Amino acid sequence: MYRITIREGKDKAPRRHHPWVFSGAIENIEPEATDADWAEVYTHTGLFIAYGWYDEKSHITLRLISWNRKDRPGEDLVRRLAREAVARRKPFFSLPDTTAFRLIHGDADFLPGLAVDAYGRELRAVVSSRFAAHFLPAIAAELDSVLHPDLLEAVTDRQFASLEELPERIRHFRSGMETREDENRENARFIENGIWFEAAPGKGQKSGFYCDQRDNRRIIEDYAAGRRVLDLFSYTGGFTLHALKAGALSVDAVDSSESALRHLLYQVHLNEDRNAIPTGSREKVTTTTANAFEWIRESEEGKYGMMILDPPKLAKTKGALDNAMKAYKDLNRVAMLKIAAGGIIATFSCSGAMSRSDFQTMLAWAAADAGVEIQILRTLSAGEDHPVRLSFPESEYLKGFVIRVLK
Ligand code: SAH
After folding, report:
1. Which atom of ligand 1 is nearest to the CA of 260?
2. Cα 390 from chain centroid?
3. Residue 200 has what pLDDT?
4. What radius of gyration, in Å, describes the C-alpha atoms of the chain?
5. N or C terminus of the chain with fewer C-beta within 10 Å?
């Protein structure tokens, strides 16, 4: 184990339990660093701060994990953190009509760079740190011993592969042991608030589904009935299906991914066949493969009574925030111009670098430019299986509002 001293003036954030320490904040490391390993971390005056994982190849050199002096850093600690994260989700295991939810939410659950979701009997993990890649086998073994899933599939987050010098690979674990799996195996099938979904093996985006929008998909049901709905950035139709369930007049789904839209239609059929959405729903849906930012400019004015705007992460870093604010603003401004008077927009940002107040400011600019009045009806966030750790504000990445557009 290394002993690391933090530079004078740089220890405020780590002492307040922020988990990220960059190389510039490190004054000294003993013995001389070679491989990645655990570290005990001290202020320059010699006070203990935390235990962390030191890895020079990671873009976050030191990731703090436990501020409890009595902990013993090692694989057992990692396994215990995984077990505790699962135990905190206990209420989710007995929900009557939902079998997809997040079990481990990265630093918010003290496991940096690791997201694990349950999709029915399968677990899907997304690895975005060298720490998570290193401890994946131990975490897989622990999850197996507490949950006995059919399979755990782990993919590398493409956005972080080069930042963390991680190979893009897919790993599988059965009964806690690493295995080789057939790429053509069956999709994982699960339900979310009564709607059936499937996630294809090893492809898709992230872990194949966005379970962070679960509560918000249910909330949009309150507004979709009797309205023509536009689901912009629909992916595989999470919002589309809930809008149909609620009795939308029609749903137009737009996404740049043709395969996601094919899967959306498949899921509409699956749910209609299982009577989870009204008969005739499949005739109400259209899909369009397009750049949504362009497409909406050409869309018919006044057609839609409801829009869902769920773009991908536009601000990847704080440095990219200014440009991203402009892109979000333009999207929302055009939506406000196009929607019918009195229409409802559910609008989201999943950029961790953009705060909720930035997001609200952006909406105010968009409304001013569009010449409309906006009423905020609901404030939206990820579900409580994606907790926000107060000492780590970046964990509040998903924010949204349901707004009414008055013209
Ligand atoms: N609302 C979805 C999740 C959306 S994720 C759900 O509930 O599951 C963001 C989506 O935006 C992805 O499906 C991605 O394919 C799509 N996307 C990214 N850039 C796009 C663009 N320029 N135009 C249209 N879709 C885009």
Report:
1. 13
2. 17
3. 86
4. 23
5. N
CA distances to 165, 359, 369 from 322, rounded to whole Å, are 28, 12, 18
List of residues 6+ apart from 216 with CB closer than 8 A: 346, 348, 380, 400
For the chain, the domains span: 2-71, 76-188, 210-406
DSSP 96-110: SS--EEEEEEGGGGT
Ligand 1 shell residues, CB under 6 Å? 205, 210, 213, 233-236, 238-239, 255-257, 260, 291-293, 310, 312
The identity of residue 261, as a single letter, is L
Res 206: pLDDT: 65
- Spatial CA neighbour of 235 closest among 216, 273, 208: 208
Q: What is the pLDDT of residues 311-368, one digit of tens each?
A: 999 987 788 899 999 999 999 999 999 999 999 999 999 998 899 999 999 999 999 9
Residues 210-406: name the CATH superfamily.
Answer: Vaccinia Virus protein VP39 (3.40.50.150)
Q: Which residues contact 370 (CB under 8 A, 6 or more apart)?
A: 333, 336, 337
Distance between CA atoms of 208 and 99, rounded to whole angstroms? 15
pLDDT score for 353: 87
Please say whether the beta carbons of 122 and 153 come within 8 A: yes
> How far apart are the CA of 196 and the centre of ligand 1, in A?
20
Q: What is the pTM of this model?
A: 0.95
At residue 214, does pLDDT exceed 60? yes
Please tell me the CATH superfamily of domain 2-71, with its number.
Answer: PUA domain (2.30.130.10)
What is the Å distance from ligand 1's center to 236 Cα?
Answer: 9
What is the domain class of 76-188 according to CATH? alpha beta
Nearest atom in ligand 1 to 257's CA: 15
DSSP reduced 3-state for 311: coil
Q: Residue 203: is its pLDDT beyond 70?
A: no
CA 79 remoteness from chain centre: 23
| CB half-sphere exposure, 57, CA atoms < 13 A | 16
Angle, CA of 232, 238 and 244, to the nearest 5° = 85
**Residue 295 · residue 233 · CB < 8 Å:** no
Identity of the residue numbered 330: D
